[in-house]
Amino acid sequence: MPEFAPVGSIQLKYREVDFCRKIELTAHNDRKIQMISDLRHIRAFLTAARLGNFTRAAAELHVSQSAFSVQIKQLEDSLGVMLFDRSKRRVALTSAARDLVVPLERILIDLEAVAVHTQELAGLRRGIVSIAALPSVAAEVLPQAIKIFTETFPGIAVRVQDVVSEKLIEAVKQEQVDFGIGSKVRVDRELKMTPLFVDRFCAFVIATHPIAKRKSVTLEELSAFPLILTGKDSSVRELLERAFRREKLPITIAYEKNHMSTAIGLARAGLGVAALPECALGGEPGEIRRIAISKPLTNRKIEIIQRRDRTFSPAALKMVEVVRQCTGGKRSAS
């Protein structure tokens, strides 16, 4: 917030507290005087200064004259100076009060602008929602949700980072985004997880592959083929390797790729079996076959991830609701 140049013997400065409802006067001797508890005192003072009459000022502000007089008296008591010379017919500003008019007008304008901005945020008329999402989620789940959201709330921009799980968690914890959509592998007490849907793991193979006509395949059967996996820093890779270790099964890795689209492309070329989440291939699979991995059933929970000590903004909360609507047809993550 800007500081005003000295006016008389007083230097004004103000700061936001609970949407800028408190203002402080700082004297040159660093003595702080709490001056105003809310905007009514500023409005009362400036209205009386403009009209030169308490009765007309109270009527304009739609308060009783007694309540208006109390506000002015509270302001004078806080400042320790008289602001008005009173007579039967009118009131006149004292010399100290004249020095306050322009600074307080500026303060009122700035604080009212803050109030309008806050109302626009609460009313979803403007703002920004930042999301970090796993690449598969960003590609297959978010586009429709963003389309619906921005059509409904055109004044709010949506920004998306498509990142692997480790970077997603970091972005949420560092408050670089409002929330994340992904799969958390490890327990983290700083984070709050809200289930969104379950994404099962599948084997993606070319149509001529020996398992192409199967409806499902076990991990043991899958271990007999060279696999195409995501990179070691992805939650998909970690969950799959954990599943194989649990079953005490070997893994033969043909290729490992950072992007699921590349892994699908390699499988389409017949270079191995891509073990990936179901949402890695949106729409109709075409010439590639998608076979569910079962026995044991292997999947990952996709969740809304946020800092435990933070509350969603109105826009972020509404975006979460829209994402839930768009994923309603997927299996629940309960």
How is this structure best described in words?
The protein is of the alpha/beta class and 334 residues long. The protein has 2 domains: 10-122, Winged helix-like DNA-binding domain superfamily/Winged helix DNA-binding domain (Arc Repressor Mutant, subunit A, Orthogonal Bundle), CATH 1.10.10; 128-326, D-Maltodextrin-Binding Protein, domain 2 (3-Layer(aba) Sandwich), CATH 3.40.190.290. Helix content is 38%, strand content 26%. It contains 11 helices and 15 strands. It has helices at residues 39-51, 54-60, 65-79, 95-122, 135-140, 142-152, 165-173, 219-222, 235-246, 260-268, 314-326; strands spanning 10-14, 23-27, 32-36, 84-86, 91-93, 127-133, 156-162, 179-182, 191-206, 216-218, 227-230, 253-257, 273-277, 288-294, 299-307. The strands form 3 sheets. Strands 6, 7, 8, 9, 10, 11, 12, 13, 14 and 15 form a 10-stranded mixed β-sheet that branches. Strands 1-2-3 form a 3-stranded antiparallel β-sheet. Helix 9 (235-246) links the parallel strand 11 (227-230) and strand 12 (253-257). Helix 1 (39-51) packs across helix 4 (95-122). Residues 1-37 have low confidence and may be disordered.
Provide a short characterization of the protein structure.
The protein is of the alpha/beta class and 334 residues long. Helices cover 38% and strands 26% of the residues.
- How many DSSP E strands? 15
Mean pLDDT: 82
Return the domain count.
Answer: 2
Residue runs with pLDDT of under 50 for 5 or more positions: 1-37
What order do the helices and strands come in, and which of them pair?
Layout: E1 10-14, E2 23-27, E3 32-36, H1 39-51, H2 54-60, H3 65-79, E4 84-86, E5 91-93, H4 95-122, E6 127-133, H5 135-140, H6 142-152, E7 156-162, H7 165-173, E8 179-182, E9 191-206, E10 216-218, H8 219-222, E11 227-230, H9 235-246, E12 253-257, H10 260-268, E13 273-277, E14 288-294, E15 299-307, H11 314-326
Parallel strand pairs: 6-7, 6-8, 10-14, 11-12, 11-13
Antiparallel strand pairs: 1-2, 2-3, 4-5, 8-15, 9-13, 9-14, 9-15
Helix pairs in contact: 1-2, 1-3, 1-4, 2-3, 6-11
